[in-house]
Design goal:
The protein is of the alpha/beta class. 36% of the residues lie in helices and 25% in strands. The protein binds flavin-adenine dinucleotide.
Length: 430
């Protein structure tokens, strides 16, 4: 029973299938949010919590895009590393931005709890063996600067936790957590409705215009008249607005889920944690409660069919756990992430009353709430925190055409990773 979500483990196991009607006719609201992923939902929720009137329109189903298909790793931070943010904005701004993401992380956790979404604690970020142990200083810095409770896991602890020699050391965050992201998106939609947001599914925005001092969002069989429009369409924006679309590079990434592994799961991943490595397109995986492993990784401009995806992801898994050679992948899927050229979220205002919250890249489960809070408090209270992200801005990236250079950068970095691995293996063999 996958309805009109794409076939994924999450669509197969979602907790409920409540549907919302499509918009039919003309309505009004103070704000119209376009896009029912986590960015749109976070914006709508934050506005409703400040007693503002909101309509949210979603082209397909709530959580149909990246928000309902991802790895389910919920942790603070952004797609761009803090060192690079600091280089651009300075030490004070990077601290403020990271603290905003810590607040958003706490908000996602409390909303998930309110919506009855199960959370599993713990994420482990690893250095690959060929990079050597190097995460100790990072753990010390994050704990000291931001009061985190990260643990440094040296090689011996890593070997106890995971049945692989692929890693050197790890940074374990006991406060980060894993969720069923489609259930969480759908749960956030329920919370938004309980606070008064009107949500329409099967309702794509087909045009954005102005009429007698108001903004008008056109849909196939209706229209929303409003003061503010917030575009939150992620990597699925198409050409809805030239400036936002041209800044958005849609980048594909993949996930697969194994058959149930029974006892072998605990022999492979011996602690309850999600795992990722520090590469740009890292392998990331986690045990699922029904005894499977969910494995994700790669970035690409291509979207292979599910059978091919199963094979690709299985190959990646076997590089880390060759002992799983006989394990079958039951389901595989991909999704588009919106990336800006600079890899930071694009959050801001284009013209009076025309907002965007997009390009959360591969680290959006918390950052979307940072963006949603920024836009909502700007609309409701004139708060200008969103201007912190202005130096990044809507950098022209050619829209969908920007996929080509993105793919080349990925191939280049992957080739470097393979070379480093080969040299390491040769040294180890010698
Ligand atoms: C496979 C995968 C794994 C990932 N893993 C993680 C992870 O573990 N942790 C993490 O933090 N991040 C992860 N991410 C990234 C994260 O999922 C995204 O950053 C985040 O979900 C983006 O949310 P969004 O609302 O901006 O976009 P989306 O969730 O893509 O939502 C955009 C919505 O807009 C709708 N839309 C588009 N055009 C229109 C229109 N004209 N009218 C109305 N609606 C429209 C779409 O139908 C879609 O539902 C992953 C992403 C993918 C694809």
């Amino acid at each position: 029973m996958t309805g009109d979500y794409i076939d994924s483990y999450y669509a197969r196991t979602r907790a409920d299938d409540a549907r919302r009607i499509a918009l039919d006719g003309a309505i009004e609201a103070e704000t119209c949010v376009v896009g029912g992923g986590l960015a749109g939902l976070a914006t709508a929720l934050a506005l409703a919590e400040q007693d503002r009137s909101v309509v949210l329109i979603e082209a397909r189903r709530v959580g149909w895009g990246a928000s309902g298909r991802n790895g389910g790793f919920v942790s603070p931070g952004y797609s761009l590393g803090l060192d690079k943010i600091e280089r651009k904005l300075g030490a004070g701004a990077v601290k403020t931005l990271y603290r905003l993401s810590l607040e958003a992380h706490a908000l996602v956790r409390s909303r998930a709890d309110e919506a009855g979404i199960r959370r599993e604690a713990g994420l482990l970020r690893c250095h690959l063996a060929e990079h050597g142990e190097g995460l100790g200083p990072y753990v010390g810095h994050m704990n000291e600067t931001y009061g985190l409770k990260l643990e440094h896991w040296p090689r011996a602890r890593m070997a106890e936790a995971l049945a692989t020699d692929r890693y050197a050391d790890g940074a374990y965050n006991p406060d980060a957590f894993r969720v069923h992201p489609l259930d969480m998106s759908r749960g956030f939609a329920r919370l938004a409705e309980a606070r008064g947001v009107r949500i329409f599914e099967g309702t794509p925005a087909t045009g954005l215009g102005r009429e007698a001092g108001s903004r008008v969002v056109a849909t196939p069989s209706g229209r929303v008249r409003c003061r503010h429009v917030v575009l939150a369409c992620g990597g699925y924006v198409g050409w809805l607005d030239l400036r936002v679309s041209a800044a958005t590079i849609p980048v594909a990434t993949y996930v697969a889920v194994t058959e149930p592994l029974g006892q072998r799961l605990k022999e492979t991943i011996r602690v309850s944690t999600g795992v990722s490595d520090v590469r740009l397109a890292s392998d990331y995986y986690r045990p699922l409660l029904d005894g499977r492993i969910l494995w994700g990784g790669r970035i690409s401009v291509f979207h292979p069919d599910p059978e091919r995806l199963k094979a690709i992801i299985r190959t990646d898994m076997l590089k880390v756990y060759p002992q799983l050679a006989d394990v079958r992948m039951d389901v595989a899927w991909g999704g588009w992430m919106g990336y800006a050229r600079h890899k930071m979220p694009c959050v801001g205002r284009l013209d009076d009353g025309f907002w965007y919250a997009t390009c959360f890249g591969g680290h959006g489960l918390v950052a979307t709430t940072v963006g949603g809070e920024m836009v909502a408090s700007a609309i409701a209270a004139g708060d200008d925190r969103w201007r912190m992200l202005e130096p990044f801005g809507l950098a022209f990236a050619g829209g969908p055409v920007g996929k080509i250079p993105a793919q080349m950068v990925y191939w280049y970095l992957s080739a470097g990773d393979r070379l480093r691995r080969k040299r390491y293996e040769a040294r180890a063999a010698a």
